[in-house]
Amino acid sequence: MRNYFCKKPLWEVSRTLAGVAQGRIPADTVIRGGKIINVCTAEILEGLDIAIAEGRIALVGDASACIGEHTKVIDAAGRYIAPGFLDGHIHIESSMLSVAEYAKAVIPHGTTGIYPDPHEICNVLGMDGVKCMIEESKHTPLKCMFVMPSCVPAVPGFEDTGSFIGPNEVAEAMKLNEIVGLGEMMNFPGILYCGDHAQDIVGETLKADKIVTGHYSLPETGAGLNAYIASGIRCCHESTRAEDALEKMRRGMYAQLREGSAWHDLQEVSRAITEHKVDSRYACLISDDTHPHTLIANGHLDHILRRALEFGIDPVTAIQMVTINAAQCFQMDHDLGSIAPGKCADIVFLESLESMNVTKVLIDGDVVAENGQLTVEVKPYEYPEWATSSMHIRDEITAETFRVEAPVGAAEVTVRAIELIPAKVPDIERHVKLRVKNGLLESDVEQDVLKTFVFERHHETGKVGVGFTKGFGISKGAMASTVAHDAHNLLVVGTNDADMALAANTLIECGGGMVVVCDGEVLGCVPLPIAGLMNAKPVEEMSEIVSKLEQSWADIGCNMPSPFMTMALIPLACLPELRLTDRGLVDCTKFEFVPLIVEE
Amino acid sequence: MRNYFCKKPLWEVSRTLAGVAQGRIPADTVIRGGKIINVCTAEILEGLDIAIAEGRIALVGDASACIGEHTKVIDAAGRYIAPGFLDGHIHIESSMLSVAEYAKAVIPHGTTGIYPDPHEICNVLGMDGVKCMIEESKHTPLKCMFVMPSCVPAVPGFEDTGSFIGPNEVAEAMKLNEIVGLGEMMNFPGILYCGDHAQDIVGETLKADKIVTGHYSLPETGAGLNAYIASGIRCCHESTRAEDALEKMRRGMYAQLREGSAWHDLQEVSRAITEHKVDSRYACLISDDTHPHTLIANGHLDHILRRALEFGIDPVTAIQMVTINAAQCFQMDHDLGSIAPGKCADIVFLESLESMNVTKVLIDGDVVAENGQLTVEVKPYEYPEWATSSMHIRDEITAETFRVEAPVGAAEVTVRAIELIPAKVPDIERHVKLRVKNGLLESDVEQDVLKTFVFERHHETGKVGVGFTKGFGISKGAMASTVAHDAHNLLVVGTNDADMALAANTLIECGGGMVVVCDGEVLGCVPLPIAGLMNAKPVEEMSEIVSKLEQSWADIGCNMPSPFMTMALIPLACLPELRLTDRGLVDCTKFEFVPLIVEE
After folding, report:
1. Which of residues 208-267 of A touch B (CB under 8 A)?
2. Does ipTM top 0.90?
3. Hey, which residues 64-123 in chain B have their CB within 8 Å of chain A?
4. pTM
5. Staple partner for B105: which of A252, A326, A406, B539, CB 3.0–4.6 Å?
């Protein structure tokens, strides 16, 4: 695939590179004395220099003749030199950071290219939002090779999103040079049962000669997996068992082994490589979703590499998984993924293969980070006003908004409650008896059952979904969030109506985010003004604000790990068993709306 | 790269494939019971079926549910099943066979796709000739994924060819779906010294997002090789030493290890893999030039696989080199090169991994060969009249044509003779004293020095190059050939003028070819009416005719192996030291014309 993510296309600079390689033109930069990790041959080679010009590698060999008066010579003695790391599947929005801040956070960890799927912003702001992220990415040296969200809305007919993506929208998006493929095709039922919508979205991508990325989360590697792959889907990050990853690779599908902030798949899935000793060219390492705290505390792909070593993967093999294998997955290996003549000079210095500590990073031949610090300016990008004012809720929200009337005359009713399982994706439909107070249904802290509301926030439709959630364990206060997958409507959960109204209004005021309130006071708030999903503050600051918010959760009694993550899945109607969208309660085993009150 | 060489594009059949995989639609064909060579993971897997529909693989797994009333079930018990073999660098013209006959010859040996470089016909007939071969290829099931000849003429200014290819012609050619890249860029000096012609030809290919294939024959792996690769050239088949191949792979260049009829590189270059134990994903096996006899006696890629095993390459690794590695080299691995869902059902049955004997071949799901025999009809293709009448020589040729006048009054002169080295590519400039007879210079059989003429045959320019050749060892008769690299003018060598005229006129009459005559009689003749290069007769017949011709050579006293091959290189002015084109003698160390007679 033609690469629009380098300083200059090769044919514009090939004469210069040939001249540099042969000592007729001085190199811009020469790296000397490092141990080169050759991902093409899986060797570590010493005694070779790297000569760079016009952002590309001109020579790997003896660069003595390439050094001129103005050549920058970098001494790499004692360092390992790897190609820049590539993350083949990642959602920037999960970090809550803007693209610029995300780039600043990951580049010092050796990441030089990512294949982001802007699925979340697309649900809120559609293609216009995606284009903002593309635009912002151009302000950073990070190569952001976007894939087009494929499943907006996630579950059509059961929720209201800010936009709709169909085959026509995908065909249009594929004309953009910045879009290299299709984002994770989560609608595997649509693919398996040959729905035109899903099949045509994939088809438009294939027609454009771009890459279709996948999401096949069934623990089934027979008929279904074959049908899914046969439909043209090239990679998948949803393996949670070693055999899933292995069977995918055996069928020519890139197995993107995941180690995200919340998804720790690698220990298990790495066995596909370590135990089966297969050719690992179809294996990659990816992060999917990473929180600001993980980026600060652990890093990005460098962290995942360390985990890979821990689980017994050979260091050179592991590095292939974040370089050449990823580049081959996206058919961009002619420009990316190896330290070789003609390739973009995206280069990472490592302290050692044991630590995988990144000491220096070059992108397109420029040193962009050193010792954990970005060394270049990133020109700020201003999101347009419509992108930072995405709270379009029709009706004023007050305590009264949260009144849930019981059937006339009832003293007790049975409601369908969504029971959460801490740090797990599925939930359980639980039937709970609630006593009626003054004709109303209220949160019942003793039973750990809380009123839960979802307000449509994209088109001022006034739609509100009402339900109950069980399992947060809080004894007071309320929480709200606009990170509420995948439609990202305004989700409010609480013990009392006044706090719920405060939580909701706090987020309406700050343009979206996550908040915890108690007794009329805001305990913690993470403002996410960009689409209600992201904030342009630096990762350190965001990590701190998020930590404070987590403390606020604890203060009102919740001991779940990352409770906001679990909360954010309440509306995700493609997951089992019971979910609440702005249109109401959805039985996700049958894809039917169900009433709040169980008729007995 | 989008693939136009399959029955139907994936997006047109993905619904059917998904339906077949899940047992909702019966497969066209199911292969059961074989041992599948999984080139993605480098494993041999048993107990898996392959379900095929619409020419593509729908499932690799349990296909019980895919078998319907009309499903063809192929029992593969005891067989190994490999993806169809791909030859990444090959000149069909070298076989002297038409595309159809070439396809018929190689398909039964497991070849399902080739990347032909129609360099020879392009020199004679230009793009129109290339298009004829493309058209003919469509009559065969063989996937002929053409690359565009890059160096026509081979040495501009020193010879007359039938056509000229520059950057504009390449840019035009890249618009054709049947052309997937650029043919071997032999003009490495042009690349290294950044000549606009060579660099732009490569640039136009890269702009079109197609693959540039290489030809870097210098025993130099430093500055020059780096400059060559940095210019965007992706693969090279010219390694003759293991270290050449190794250094290419280390620089992200596909090393196409060659085993042709005349070039036996594999024994040496395979050490790059066997001794260095590197990741072999950047290694391929290719044939380059194969004669009809080799195809009959040895086979094609199956033969090269056998050679690879002989030299210690693991069978699965070797099979990767003619399947997935080749497909990845051309960035067509999404459609070709593995037995995996969605891929073209190009499949080879092998008797054993030791013998590599091919027992059955499928292309696009159809059985096309069994037990060495093609099982499908190939509709004949008629070359247009202009393509089969390419002998455009201005002047009538008679015995008098071959008179070489000595300087007036000289009794003896010293001439520059081209001394051949049997079965080697270079020649030597040798200065030979010739006695003048009746004011003329004649062939001198005692010194083994023969008159040699090259007649321009493309544009009736009347140009004739005159020289002497040493080393054929014949004592009588004459030979002529229109296979005379790369301009393919009419080359005549002989002991006497009458036989030389007969040889020349025999070829003019039959539209080109190769001939041996003696004492006014044609001893052996291989007519090559298609562009003076190819014949539409079957390989068996051609092999026989060529054998007879070789016998004729022996009959007049030549004991060289394949003397026609050596003869064909006499005009190839890109090789050292002294060559003869239709424009005269060329000193190929200095790229200067030199006179026949050495001034002393």
Report:
1. 209, 221-224, 226-232, 234, 246, 249-253
2. yes
3. 65
4. 0.96
5. B539
